[in-house]
Amino acid sequence: MLGEDKAFQETADRQVLFLQGPLSPLYRLLGRQLKQAGCRVYRINLCAGDWLHWNGSDARSFKGKPQDWPAYVSGVMDELGITDLVLHADQRIYHKMAIAEANARGVRVFVTELGLLRSGWMTLEREGLATLSRFPADPAAVRGISRSAGEVDFTPMYPKSTALEIIPDVIYNLTNVFLKPLYPSYQRHTLYPPILEYLRGGWRLFREGARNRKVEVQLDELLLQDQPYFIFPLQLEGDFQLRAHSPYKSFSEVIDTILVSFAEHAPKAAWLVLKSHPLDAGFENWPIVVRKLAQEYRISDRIIFLDGGRLDHLFSKTSGLVTLNSTAGLEAMQCGVPVKTLVPAHYDIAGMTHSGDLATFWKRPEKPDESLVRDYLKAIAATVQVRGSIHNSEGIDAAAQNMAKRILEFSVNEPGGFCDQPPRLAKARALGVPL
């Protein structure tokens, strides 16, 4: 009984501040769970879309300019005695500044993101993600976490609903467009005007069937050939994995880097298969960019661009996959495919990814250690992944409950999945990552 009273007192002393969450009711439900457990819960809305997801007496609005935000959020932390900060993605302009203020005050930071394990999982880490993740990068540490984790159920759950992926996004962003006068100084973290993005994305969605049929023909022809091929999945231009966690200013630089290396070092019989991102709205017109670069480097006859279809259909015969730092690399390793990352991805661990440079990857790609991959999956599932999904109605409830449990128990990144310093950061900075 005394232990229960102490636990309640600790919970009652926790003052939790929420900033922007994913485009779903997740944070409102998570806040409700924490409040029912005895925490005091607060929210700051930065735009009309935020207000739509969470409004009431426990929410306040910031309507100032971005340069005024650090003073505002630090004042709120001091006024309310905030002990915990919860936010989605750590590199949005407001979130980066809030994390800096939280760190200066010893406030615990919990960051959410879509799951590294797909689908039916969400990410919940302390302090930061990707290059700033505190999850160990040492194989021995990963194996140790796996041993202490116990059994983990990887049964697929919470299948994605296309409606829950698209509709909340549209409602949120159009609300911000039409109610812009209510938050006149809000600076969105996305690159493109929402209405234009929806128009272009809608046109691509309308043509998806035709694009996929073309890709099926291309795949049939590719898989019938005897030539070796490598896979290069494209990432979105607005992805923070590119904008914040890499030294590249545009994904066109990434494409150029890989095509130059492929032309110079890959076996002459090898092909390179580039695959568009399923959410690409087509602003950059990557097929034309790739075609011009392939002509410049005289490898047009060795380049295939797939503008649709499923990436995993390529895994069975590929020689390897090269990526900036996409989660596609983790999916490939689970199928035994050699993977080379250009920057230190979360899964870029000795024994899992190719240890040499890109030039050696084309010639002698190193296969992942299957047992280490299994240990890594088990380790992250037990420490920095939680069951749930924002793209499934039942999954949203599950994510809220599971995240609340981890936060209340102080078990995020536990057991053993937290390093005092981000173990990938030094390597990233050496490559020019501006963090």
Polypeptide structure, described:
This protein has 435 residues and is α/β, with parallel strands linked by helices. It is 44% helix and 13% strand. The protein has helices at residues 2-12, 26-36, 48-53, 69-80, 93-105, 139-149, 162-178, 194-206, 208-224, 240-243, 251-265, 286-296, 328-333, 358-363, 370-383, 393-409, 425-430; strands at 15-18, 40-45, 59-61, 84-88, 108-114, 121-126, 229-233, 271-275, 303-306, 320-323, 339-341, 385-387. The protein has a seven-stranded mixed beta sheet. It has a five-stranded parallel beta sheet with strand order 9-8-7-10-11, with helices on both faces. Strand 2 (40-45), helix 3 (48-53) and strand 3 (59-61) form a beta-alpha-beta unit. Helix 11 runs parallel beside helix 12. It is globular and about 65 Å long. The termini are far apart. 41% of the residues are buried. The model is unreliable at 1-9 (pLDDT under 50).
What features would you highlight for this structure?
435 residues; five-stranded parallel β-sheet; 12 strands; disordered N terminus; Capsule_polysaccharide_synth
